[in-house]
Amino acid sequence: MIDIGVTKLAIIGGIALIVIGPDKLPAVAKTVGTLLGRARRYVADVKAEVNKSMDLDELKKMRETVENAARDVENTIQTNAADFEKSWSEATTAALEGGNTVDSVPEYKHPNKNWRLKQGAVPHWYKARNGVRTKALSGAARVARYRPRKASQ
């Protein structure tokens, strides 16, 4: 780089004062300052554009890698689905050849369980015999159930 010290700047300033003259030197210095400012802004804009293009290239590369990974996942899913279909068709043809028909498979029957009741390991007959409570009561229901009855008069 250009190595400019204080002494070199003083020499350049002295020569500029002699060549340009003391009347026009402030206007020339102002013009040189604005030109240097424009040059710095231009260099900063160029740097920003270069950085933006580099980031854009990186994002494009990242997008391509993500798209390739998605394609690979899709291909593996398709091959697995094809393998499953093949094994399923082999299993169903083997079951049909063995004398079993699709109609002989029992139909699904819902268990009709009450999901509100907790199913424990203790059987209901044991709970009923020993007086263990199997259903939860709300506070109002408990008060109504255990309220003393009025004696009939």
UniProtKB/TrEMBL annotation:
Keywords: Cell inner membrane, Cell membrane, Membrane, Protein transport, Translocation, Transmembrane, Transmembrane helix, Transport
Entry keyword Cell membrane: yes
Signal peptide: none
Membrane topology label: Single-pass membrane protein
Compartments in which it is found: Cell membrane; Membrane
Main location: membrane
Entry's Gene Ontology BP terms: protein transport by the Tat complex
GO molecular function, one term: protein transmembrane transporter activity
GO cellular component terms, semicolon-separated: TAT protein transport complex
Its job: Part of the twin-arginine translocation (Tat) system that transports large folded proteins containing a characteristic twin-arginine motif in their signal peptide across membranes. Together with TatC, TatB is part of a receptor directly interacting with Tat signal peptides. TatB may form an oligomeric binding site that transiently accommodates folded Tat precursor proteins before their translocation.
Family: Belongs to the TatB family.
Oligomeric and partner information: The Tat system comprises two distinct complexes: a TatABC complex, containing multiple copies of TatA, TatB and TatC subunits, and a separate TatA complex, containing only TatA subunits. Substrates initially bind to the TatABC complex, which probably triggers association of the separate TatA complex to form the active translocon.
Matches recorded under PANTHER family: SEC-INDEPENDENT PROTEIN TRANSLOCASE PROTEIN TATA, CHLOROPLASTIC (PTHR33162:SF1)
Protein name: Sec-independent protein translocase protein TatB
Organism annotation: Rhodoferax aquaticus
Gene: tatB
